[in-house]
Amino acid sequence: MTEGIKILCVDDERNVLRALERLFLDDDYEIFSALSGEQGLERLAEEGDIQIVISDYRMPGLNGVDFLQKVCTQWPHTVRIVLSGYADTAAVVGAINEGQIYKFIPKPWNDDELRVTIQNAVERYFLTRQNALLLEELQTANENLRSVNEGLEAEVLARTAKLTCQNQALTVSQNILDALPVGVVGVDSTGMVVCCNQAGRAFFQERADFILGNSSQALFPEALLNFLEEMAPAKGRGLRSEVSWTGKRVRVQGARLDQDDQAGIVLVLEVAGD
């Protein structure tokens, strides 16, 4: 606790206020006084950050409980203590149960007990305020987390929609390739087969189920591998050739594609004489 502790004492008897001031004379407290509940509200409005209020119960105008109820409404973190005679105990206990008052100190009070009560009240004030700050920070963090989650959800939905659109486009593209009467096979820069239409699968016969993701070295005949070697430097330029494959003469046409940092070769295959 680095800030000074301010205590407001409210009583319609000046001798009581002076007694309270003397009691805390040796403590590191700043003491304010008011002769009525109305004056007490004015002093609170002026100071704004008084941590503890000690009020008599029987006062003209606002009694202590009503005064402290107003304090509770306008300055909820301020710790509220009531001083009163035993005759007023029932009314004060009711206010304590409603949460308007922290402690009831009977008159005449014991100085040592009152000082301990004030020390505990100071600790309560800072603990309550710290809890309020932590709750506010937690609420802010939750709001930020909710905002991040909403942003992530929106991004996921957008990416899902994009992927759905791309998958639909790929499906349409594959359907178009499958409708072609010639074989179309795509090979990436590592030599892996990444695309093959229905007519192209006919050239692989029993290995047709293991085309995509497999190495061209394991699938292609030597003549076609040599053709791929010739295609390597032919950026964007189409080459033609005939190779022997599965006992047939196959016309092959190739084109090298370079797009979005991805390189590959597209081969068009057709049985010679068809």
Task: Write structural notes for this entry.
With 274 residues, the protein is an alpha/beta fold. It contains 8 helices and 10 strands. The chain has a 5-stranded parallel β-sheet with strand order 2-1-3-4-5, sandwiched between helices. α1 links the parallel β1 and β2. The longest helix has 69 residues. It is rod-shaped, with a radius of gyration of 44 Å. The N and C termini lie far apart (94 Å). The mean pLDDT is 85.
Write a compact overview of the structure shown:
Helices cover 47% and strands 24% of the residues. By secondary structure, it is an alpha/beta fold. It folds into two domains: 5-131, Response regulator (Rossmann fold, 3-Layer(aba) Sandwich); 180-271, 2-Layer Sandwich (Beta-Lactamase).
CATH homologous superfamily annotation of the largest domain: Response regulator
Per the CATH scheme, the topology name of the largest domain is Rossmann fold
Low-confidence stretches: none
By helix and strand content, what is the structural category? Answer: alpha/beta
Tally of individual domains:
2
What do the pLDDT scores average to? 85
Number of helical segments? 8
Number of strands: 10
Helicity, as a percent range:
40-55%
Task: Tell me the series of helices and strands, N- to C-terminal.
Answer: EHEHEHEHEHEEHHHEEE
Instruction: Give the strand line-up of the largest sheet.
Output: 2-1-3-4-5
Fraction in beta strands: 15-25%
